[in-house]
Write a structure and sequence with these properties.
By secondary structure, the protein is an alpha/beta fold. It has 2 domains: 128 residues, Periplasmic binding protein-like II (D-Maltodextrin-Binding Protein, domain 2), CATH 3.40.190.10; 96 residues, Periplasmic binding protein-like II (D-Maltodextrin-Binding Protein, domain 2), CATH 3.40.190.10. It contains 9 helices and 10 strands. Strand 6, helix 5 and strand 7 form a beta-alpha-beta unit.
Length: 249
């Protein structure tokens, strides 16, 4: 075979590979500032990190926005390749592979200023935690025993309003996320953040274990995320979104 037909054949094969390469389908939820949100710059801190890490590995990610529970279940059924951001739990770890940590959150209690709740005085109280959110580990025993009641509205800003109105007693969130929810709800002067830290949690990208090539996809993503850390891009993205969150009213 002469060189020209050979080059033509290689080009056709490469082109066919590009056409056949399906984009990676991702899903996340809305209204989780500064981490994810349609109205946030670049879709939020963790949206930008996930997309950039995948692009580092040559992937073509396509992002969909769904209600949290719907997106989670759709990913488990194979409609999406991965979803984020999620905390580990025994049930989730049985069904999904977890990436290297995307971000570590510092969990605080937010209660009415006159109540001044701390982590050791929660029995008999009412927790507001948005639908689909995983309760922090220190609260699981209180919830299981019925010493702590749980109310599940759609988002954290609603929790801030309900606590301010006295319908719930407190909510739990990352300190940055919680302060932003107070501002969005217009109750910043009526609620306070606990002095004690309830927990430190790590948020992850998750891939269904039954997805073909799940481990290879996860290994590739982790490698891309590490590249962002190594070249300083990770720190730049985190700082940009933190600054935006602290400046937002």
């Amino acid at each position: 075979m002469s060189i020209r037909p050979l080059l033509t054949l290689i080009a056709l094969l490469c082109g066919a590979g590009l056409v056949d390469a399906a984009p990676l389908k991702l899903v996340t939820g809305d209204q989780y500032p500064p981490f994810t949100g349609r109205s946030l710059p670049d879709g939020g801190m963790l949206t930008e990190l996930v997309l950039r890490a995948l692009q580092e590995t040559g992937q073509q990610p396509q992002l969909a926005w769904q209600p949290w529970k719907r997106g989670y279940l759709a990913t488990l059924r194979g409609q999406y390749d991965a979803t984020f951001p999620y905390l580990p739990s025994p049930q989730r770890e049985a069904e999904f592979l977890f990436s290297a940590p995307l971000y570590e959150t510092t969990q605080k209690l937010f209660s009415r200023s006159e109540d001044q709740l701390e982590a050791d005085h929660l029995a008999g109280k009412r927790l507001c935690l948005p639908l689909g959110w995983q309760p922090p580990e220190p609260l699981l025993a209180l919830l299981a025993s019925g010493q702590l009641q749980r109310h599940e509205p759609q988002d954290l800003a609603t929790c801030a309003k309900l606590v301010a109105l006295g319908r719930d007693d407190f909510f739990v969130a990352d300190d940055l996320l919680g302060q932003q929810a107070l501002r969005h709800a217009g109750v910043h002067s009526r609620l306070r953040q606990s002095q004690t830290t309830l927990a430190r949690n790590r948020l992850h990208l998750i891939v269904p274990r039954n997805r073909p090539g799940a481990q290879a996809l996860m290994d590739s993503f982790n490698a891309g995320l590490q590249r962002l850390r190594d070249d300083g891009t990770y720190a730049q993205i985190v700082q940009k979104h933190r600054a935006h969150a602290l400046a937002a009213d």
